[in-house]
Amino acid sequence: MKIHEYQAKQVLGKYGVPIPEGRVATSPEQVKAIAEGFRDGLVVVKAQVHVGGRGKAGGIKLAKTPAEAEEVGKQILGMDLKGLKVKKVLVEQGLAIDKEYYLGMILDRDSKRIVVMVSSEGGVDIEEVAARSPEKIAKVAINPTLGLADHQIRHLCFAGGIDKSLVKEVSRFLKALYVAFRESDASLAEINPLVVTKAGTLIAADAKINIDDNALFRQADLAAWQESEDDNPIEEEARKRGLTYVSLDGDIGIIGNGAGLVMTSLDVVSREGGKPANFLDIGGGAKAEVVRNALEVVLLKPDIKGVVVNIFGGITRCDEVARGIIDAARSLDIKVPVVVRLEGTSVEEGKAILASSGLNLVPASTMREAARKIVELSYAA
Ligand code: GDP
Ligand code: MN
C-alpha cells in the first residue's frame, strides 16, 4: 500500500527525522493561508498523488509570496499527473538547497533482507542513477537479528559519497529511517532528496513509504490511510466496463488474456527495454466487444507510445480478438503502433482478418518478437 508524502513525513517525524514545516491544502485559498503562516518567503507546493517523479511532471512548484503560492496551487490542484487527478497539495516552507542526497531501504526478495542504499546523487530519479552509474549507490543488506550496525552506516556513507562532515548527522537519519521501516512493516522507504541546506543542516525534503499489504492487519493507523482506487479515472473507467486493469508508470499499453500471460508480457516488454503502462487481462473467452473496450481503455492514458496485444487462444478465439481489434482501430483513429501476437484457437482466421483489414497493425508470431517490435516502434521517434 502506498501512502502520500505528507503521511510518510508524519511517520518519519515521529521517529525524530527533521521535516520541513508544512500542511495539506485542498483549495488555492488554503494554500495561501498556509503560506501566510510561514516566517520566510519561499514556499513549495507539492501534488499529493501516488506516483513518483512529480517534480519532472510539473506537480511541484516553488513560489515567492503567498499570492504566488495561491496561483501555483490553482495550477496544481485538479491537474492530471500521470493519469491521477490531484486533490491535495502539501504546502511547505521552501528550502535553500545546497546538496541533495538519497537514502533508501527496500525489502530485497533475493537476499531476503532489508537493503539500505545511500547515494550523493539524490534528487533525481534514482532508477536513472542505478542504470547510468550504479557505482554511485552504496548498498548493504542488513542482518535482521543484528540490525543496522554502525560500521555498515560508515561504509554506506563513505561508499555513497557523503560529505565527511555530515556523516554523523546522516547516520541519525539512517537509524531513524530503519526503525521507522521495521515498525511500519514497510516494503520501501526513501528520503529523496535528503537536503543539505545552505545553512548546512539536513532535512528530509521528500519521503516515500510503501507498506506491506500483508501487515496492514497490525498497522491499523497506517491502513486507515488507504484510499479508494477511484482516484485513478482510467481504472475507474475500466471497472465500469468490467475489465481487470491496473495502471502502471510506463508508456506501452499491454493487453492479454489470462493474468499469467499478461504478467509475463509485462516482464518480457520490460526485458526488451519497454516501460509497461498497464496490466489488462481480458480474461478467457473474450468477445470482440471486450477487446474493443480493452483497446479503448488502454489508449485513454496520456502519453501512451504503443500497444501490444498478446493472445494465447484456448477458450478465447483469435478471430474474435482480431475482429475486436479491427472494430476499435476503425472507430478510434489510433495514432500509436499496435503489435498483435495471436496464437492458438482459430489463429489462422485471426491473422487473415488482421491482414486483410488494411489497417496498420503489426503482426508478431512470438511474445518475444511482439515485445521487441513494440519497444522498437514505440520509442522510434
Ligand atoms: P518527486 O519529484 O516526486 O520525487 O518530488 P520531490 O519532493 O523529491 O521534489 C523534486 C525536486 O524538487 C527536488 O529534488 C528538489 O530539487 C526540488 N524541491 C523540492 N522541494 C524544494 C524546496 O523546498 N526548495 C527548492 N529549491 N527545491 C525543492
Ligand atoms: Mn523525490
Written overview of the protein:
With 381 residues, the chain is of the alpha+beta class. It has 3 domains: 21-93, Dna Ligase, domain 1 (2-Layer Sandwich); 97-223, ATP-grasp fold, B domain (D-amino Acid Aminotransferase, Chain A, domain 1, 2-Layer Sandwich), CATH 3.30.470; 232-378, 3-Layer(aba) Sandwich (Rossmann fold). Helix content is 36%, strand content 26%. The protein contains 13 helices and 18 strands. It has helices at residues 5-14, 28-36, 66-76, 126-132, 150-159, 167-183, 220-223, 233-240, 259-271, 288-298, 318-332, 347-355, 367-378; strands at 22-25, 43-47, 60-63, 80-81, 84-85, 89-93, 97-108, 113-119, 137-142, 186-197, 202-204, 207-211, 244-247, 252-256, 278-281, 306-313, 338-344, 361-364. The strands form 5 sheets. Strands 7, 8, 9, 10, 11 and 12 form a 6-stranded antiparallel β-sheet that branches. Strands 1-6-2-3 form a 4-stranded antiparallel β-sheet, with helices on one face. Strand 4 and strand 5 form a beta hairpin. Helix 2 packs antiparallel against helix 3 (66-76) and helix 5 (150-159) packs across helix 6 (167-183). The longest helix is centred in the middle third of the chain and has 17 residues, at 167-183. The mean pLDDT is 94. The structure holds guanosine-5'-diphosphate and manganese (II) ion (MN). Manganese (II) ion (MN) binds at residues 192, 206.
